[in-house]
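FAQ
Q: What does a multi-component entry look like?
A: The components come first, one per line:
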Amino acid sequence: MLALEQLAIAYGPHTVVRDISLSLAQGQIGCLVGPSGCGKTTLLRAIAGFEPVSNGRITLQQQQVSAPGDTLSPELRHVGMVFQDFALFPHLTVADNISFGLKNQSRAARRDRVKQLLQLVGLPDLGQRYIHQLSGGQQQRVALARALAPEPRVLLLDEPFSSLDAELREALARDIRSILKKLSITAIMVTHDQFEAFTMADMVGVMDHGNLQQWATPYELYHKPANRFVADFIGRGVLLPGTMLDSQQVETSLGVFNQYYVSDARTGDKVDVLIRPDDIVHDDISGVTATVTDKSFRGSHILYTLALGTGEQVLCLALSHHNHSIGEKIGIRLDLDHLVMFPRG
Amino acid sequence: MLKAWADIWRWSVLVPAFVLALPVIIVFGSLLSPQPEVWAHLRATVLADYVINSVILAFGTGFGALLIGTGTAWLVAQYQFTGRRVMEWLLLLPLAMPAYIIAYTYTGMLDFAGPVQTTLRQWSGWSYGDYWFPEIRSLWGAVLMLALVLYPYVYMLARNAFREQSSSLLEASRTLGMTPRQHFWKVALPLARPALLTGMALAMMEALADYGTVQYFGVPTFTTGLFRTWFGMGNRVAAAQLAAMLTSFVLLLLFLERWSRRKIRYFYHGQRQVNIRRRLSPWQQRSALLICLLPVIFGFVIPAAQLTFWATETWHYTLDQRFATLVWNTFSLAAIAAVISVLLALLFAYAKRLRRDLLVQAPVRIAALGYAVPGTVIAIGVMIPLAWLDTHIDLLAEEWFGIRTGLLLSGTLVALVLAYSVRFLAVSLHSVEAGLDRIKPGMDNAARSLGCTPVQVLGRVHVPLLRGSVLSALLLVFVDVLKELPATLILRPFNFNTLAVRAHELASDERLADAALPALAIVLVGLLPVIWLARSVDQRSKGNS
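Then the predicted structure of the entire assembly, as tokens:
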């Protein structure tokens, strides 16, 4: 459906994005996350046709749309885009905004399409309003309806929730996902917020400095990060130093753990083990204790920062009624499903 | 206690606002005493000419300014070409050139004995009557002159409007299947329409108010008709009635302008966009530069060069003691008017800030409408009540003290300063209010909570923050007074001349070269606010890139 092959984008001598390969099947929602300046928006704009590529190619439904020196104009690509500032036309009504991209259709057909889309995004009665009469969330829905109206081959969303209130974001992200799924729209979204990415996407790509660090499902990203950057960027956690006892066992200040898959680690190798807050279970009867150095109340849970006897710090997510004060020693137990570790260089 | 204070603020606004609104009230009040004979005469002879010529003048100028202003603004806002940064402010230069001065200059260059036709005859060997040459002293000549100096009104507003259009709008259009050209007609232009209409309405108001150009070109319009009816036919009431008609036209335009401005608020979020200007091929770059240069060359460079040439030829006898007196008269008059106008603006702006009720807001807004009213109309509206006052003061003084006071008000600078205050209050008020808006009420509270008394707040917070806008208000009014012609011509005391009046008199006597020195002086001082404007434009575009 949508495929990027060894794609690179450069401004003059300065390469912004390099060697990116990824693909989405029909109806899949992909998401690019990464810190600002990582090249994710540039990549999106290249798919839309606003940026030429310096290497590799982009294909849409088996049609090549971008290759070095050969960029199909945005208006000929049939891609829909939702912009960060929505870019709605303030001189047109909601209905006229939505029908803006509908060409070569009868007036009645356009009216029906607008009605259908307004219904879809849940704003059936607002067709005659002007943009400045809408709330931010409503504008977002109109922007989506406008992009979907000409039945684009792929929908691009550039930080679509960044100008909205936090409480609105998640609800809207879920709504939009269910709309896209219902219509089986292939979409790719850019965001710097990983939770938005987890809510929306089937596949998530983590980018840094123009490189795609990992392209995987949200579950895999969290539990099987491909490298330190992904481990650090996605979710919370600490890297606990450890030493390999043999190719399977690693010794850390929290004890000795087994890893079940074969690695090329050798006895005596220094490694870092990824410990997520949910890997450490608060257990009053455990013999291993740690000192509470900080706590942050999260409603149903409390996130503790604990200092181990050796001075290392780990995070622990405990149920809310296990309320301990700073300075207290509490019992902990490690509950690791699988081991994620990176050789220490 | 609080009640008494409130009253002082109200009265300190109501009384001056009433005085400033009086001229327009008088002019419209004249409609209450019908003058059927004069009107029958006017209708039978010249009224149709006045109406038709004024309408053609206003719309011709409006469309001319729209075309030049929009085209150049689109080029500098959307495309990257060599010289673009310089063009951005060069395009403002014709603002410094009053229409009546450009009119004399082009007449001197283009009439039968002027350099253009003389050269043409030398080249071709033709003599008088052998060829056709467009007559600059005509209605269309006046339209051309006015459009050449008034297009910056459209240009400034259009450039801001185009620049504030987010570049993602163009991208949105393209993902929806529009070419860049379709985007211009379907999105960019409709979006800029309120700004374009506002600029066009301003240019049209100036065209309707123009007296110097049409009088010199001999085109009968409302403003020249006012003069004729007042001084030629000696009928003040009929002149005032004509003035009321003219003012109604202008108010119609003012309504259009206000209505368009209201929409601007919805169309632009006011946030400056980081726009990537589109690159052009070298050949396209040269054409873009040429298109932008044309209005500057014809609207400023050529007339300024001609004036300089004439001035260098004549300065050895025009630059004399009389010229020094002329400059002194003009500058001191402009300075007095500027100070008074800014003091009034400060009074009104503070009253509006402290009392947010309609009884203060409404009079201030009405008093500020004067900028839309043509100078000739204001002059008539000032003359009538002051002459009436003079007559009565004179009578009373003779009755009680046995002395004659003569023309105490209407024949002195009082009349002029009053007229300028009416006409230019909006200019100073706009500047001062913009400055005062920046001082948020929270700042007053913050200063008070840090231990300042109200007077200290004024001295330590308001004065330093307002200084810039007060200075710019002074400068703007000063220059506007310097350029003002029709009201000065009617209201000036006997034997009191200003640069503008002197230039007009000399030009009317066909002493064009002698008129160059005062005209050049006006243009040079007129450059000051343009430079100031250009600098603020430059700073903003620097902040943008």
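Q: Is there any commentary attached?
A: Sometimes. For this entry: DSSP finds 22 helices and two strands in chain B.
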